[in-house]
């Protein structure tokens, strides 16, 4: 009798699996792996990190359209260009939502920021502001000197360190400084990553430390897996460690952004900015706030700036690090890229953004890097209503994952996809080639920051190739293993390279003179006079009280990609 009772759970499990199988068939749902979903966890037990590789293996065995169960959440996995096109064109509006994940509550201003907001009037307004006011070609051209300046600051540091003998360079910290300083100067006119040679006040050191701490934590938690997003029972058990981290990060991030915006407001009052004068992005939005206060609220400005910061930095630095790694493992390609730069730019001036259109092979290197290691390997969406994909019924509320990495590394689509061959993109007018290549997504939720990212990556990578010789630190090839967590697709092992100067004497002097003059300007510039600072402090005190009161009543605060 006791043995009979022990068999009951097993019998119930078998009945549950068969019932679920027949319901799946009768509803004409997309196929799924032969391994059945288990109660509570669904198919999570068959998945491994990195997720895009695990899902690509399942697709290779079970088809390019699959419906999996992540806990209690149905997930449609797409791994072919034709299915991706059907989802992102024919069903574009249906899949225009983002899934509501825990990170969106605390880092997406309660699902109201551009990345996490549901499709509707509010999201369309945010998208309009991002595409037209912030990331338009005209606006990006205005900030070209900032990007050029930050690239030359990076070159200067490398030159000073390697002018007498080759040095070993940690690539990621160098690219972190470049991308975050470039983007933050566009956003706020401020730098937060400095070298040992920079002379800083105690206040500047404190703000830089706070900012670096916040950004580092954002990158960590945004890439962390939260099983509570897929298994609600875990949320019922109480607040998780990840949620506590998100709550703490939310408070620190909001306070920093409130102080920054308040300081820039006071600067505008003191300087009486001409609306036609070039300003940073926050000041530009604050100017618009005067005429449309309901649209350009402080919270909207904070959320927009944080989206640009997160989406425009980690992805760019990741792409450049992967590109450098691939070039070191393929010296023929590196030599060809250097020869192209010498032919079209020469050795008596720096690469400029205006040169990028005349450097097609450099562009091919970047595209091939993004094909092999896309910054956003998975594109998440969610269906707003029932629809049909590939002849199958897809229910409302289904999470959609377009496996960009799987499509871009499919041997049936790309010949020899594991080989780094930039020449495959030579002669192509557009680099998307249908839906075979989607490094910035597609459709309504595509990344509006594509232009900014391509400019920064092209200028940064081109300058490094032009000005320095690069070599591996050992005879072995660079390890190309992928990290398991991060906003984008990080390298598992940070790149270390040997660098030596190959600059012409004239361009060396340009780098030194240009950056030294900028260093002097930064040190001589006074941002806020004492009288204004007192007013800033008073206003900040009021803002802090207001912010704390708001948190007691509602969780309202600010993934890879923008839209």
Describe the structure.
It is found in: Membrane. Its cofactor is heme. The strands form three sheets. The protein has a four-stranded mixed β-sheet with strand order 1-2-7-4. Strands 3-9-8 form a three-stranded antiparallel β-sheet. The protein has a two-stranded antiparallel sheet with strand order 5-6. The protein contains 19 helices and nine strands. It is an alpha+beta fold. Helices cover 54% and strands 8% of the residues. The chain has a domain at 107-376 and 439-553: Cytochrome p450 (Orthogonal Bundle), CATH 1.10.630.10. 40% of the residues are buried. Mean pLDDT is 86; it is low at 515-532 and 550-560. Helix 8 runs antiparallel to helix 13 and helix 11 runs antiparallel to helix 19.
Whole-number mean pLDDT: 86
Q: How much helix is in the residues?
A: 40-55%
CATH superfamily caption of the domain at 107-376 and 439-553: Cytochrome P450
- State the CATH class of the domain at 107-376 and 439-553: Mainly Alpha
CATH level 3 topology of the domain at 107-376 and 439-553: Cytochrome p450
Number of strands: 9
First-residue to last-residue Cα separation: 60 Å
Compute the gyration radius: what is it? 25 Å
Cofactor: heme
Main location: membrane
Keywords: Heme, Iron, Membrane, Metal-binding, Monooxygenase, Oxidoreductase, Transmembrane, Transmembrane helix
Protein name: Cytochrome P450
């Amino acid at each position: 009798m006791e043995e009979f009772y022990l068999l009951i759970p097993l019998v119930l499990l078998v009945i549950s699996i068969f019932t679920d199988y027949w319901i799946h068939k009768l509803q004409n749902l997309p196929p799924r792996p032969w391994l059945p979903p288990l109660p509570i966890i669904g198919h999570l037990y068959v998945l491994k990190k990195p997720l895009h590789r695990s899902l690509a293996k399942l697709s290779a065995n079970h088809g390019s359209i699959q419906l999996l169960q992540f806990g209690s959440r149905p997930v449609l996995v797409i791994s072919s260009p034709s299915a991706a096109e059907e989802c992102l064109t024919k069903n574009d509006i249906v899949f225009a939502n983002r899934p509501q994940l825990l990170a969106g509550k605390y880092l997406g201003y309660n699902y109201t920021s551009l990345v996490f907001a549901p499709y509707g009037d509010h999201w369309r307004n945010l998208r309009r502001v991002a595409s037209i006011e912030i990331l338009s070609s005209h606006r990006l051209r205005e900030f070209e000197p900032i990007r050029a300046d930050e690239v030359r600051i990076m070159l200067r540091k490398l030159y000073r360190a390697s002018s007498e003998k080759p040095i070993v360079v940690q690539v990621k910290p160098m690219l972190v400084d470049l991308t975050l300083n470039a983007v933050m100067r566009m956003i706020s006119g401020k730098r937060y990553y400095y070298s040992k040679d920079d002379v800083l006040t105690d206040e500047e050191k404190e703000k830089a430390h706070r900012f670096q701490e916040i950004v580092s934590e954002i990158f960590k938690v945004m890439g962390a897996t939260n099983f509570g997003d897929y298994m609600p029972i875990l949320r019922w058990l109480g607040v998780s460690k990840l949620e506590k981290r998100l709550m703490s990060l939310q408070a620190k991030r909001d306070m920093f952004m409130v102080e920054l915006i308040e300081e820039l407001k006071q600067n505008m009052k003191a300087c009486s900015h001409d609306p036609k004068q070039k300003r940073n992005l926050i000041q530009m939005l604050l100017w618009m706030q005067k005429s449309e206060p309901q649209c350009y609220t402080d919270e909207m400005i904070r959320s927009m700036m944080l989206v640009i910061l997160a989406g425009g930095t980690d992805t760019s630095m990741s792409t450049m690090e992967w590109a450098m790694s691939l070039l070191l493992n393929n010296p023929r390609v590196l030599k060809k890229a250097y020869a192209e730069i010498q032919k079209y730019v020469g050795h008596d001036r720096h690469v400029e953004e205006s040169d990028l259109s005349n450097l097609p092979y450099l562009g091919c290197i970047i595209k091939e890097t993004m094909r092999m290691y896309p910054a956003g390997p998975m594109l998440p969406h969610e269906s707003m209503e029932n629809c049909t994909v590939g002849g199958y019924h897809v229910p409302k509320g289904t999470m959609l994952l377009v496996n960009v990495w799987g499509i871009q590394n499919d041997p049936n689509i790309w010949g020899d996809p594991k080989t780094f061959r930039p020449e495959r993109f030579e002669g192509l007018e557009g680099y998307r080639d249908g839906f075979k290549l989607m490094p910035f997504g597609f459709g309504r939720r595509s990344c509006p920051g594509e232009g900014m990212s391509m400019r920064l990556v092209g200028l940064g990578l081109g300058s490094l190739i032009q000005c320095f010789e690069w070599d591996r630190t050992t005879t072995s090839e660079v390890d190309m293993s992928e990290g398991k967590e991060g906003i984008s697709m990080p390298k598992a092992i940070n790149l270390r390279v040997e660098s030596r100067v190959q600059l012409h004497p004239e361009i060396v002097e340009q780098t030194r003179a240009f950056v030294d003059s900028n260093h002097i300007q930064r040190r001589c510039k006074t941002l806020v006079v004492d009288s204004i600072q007192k007013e800033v402090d008073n206003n900040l005190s009021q803002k802090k009280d207001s912010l704390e009161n708001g948190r007691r009543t509602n969780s309202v605060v600010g993934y890879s990609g923008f839209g």
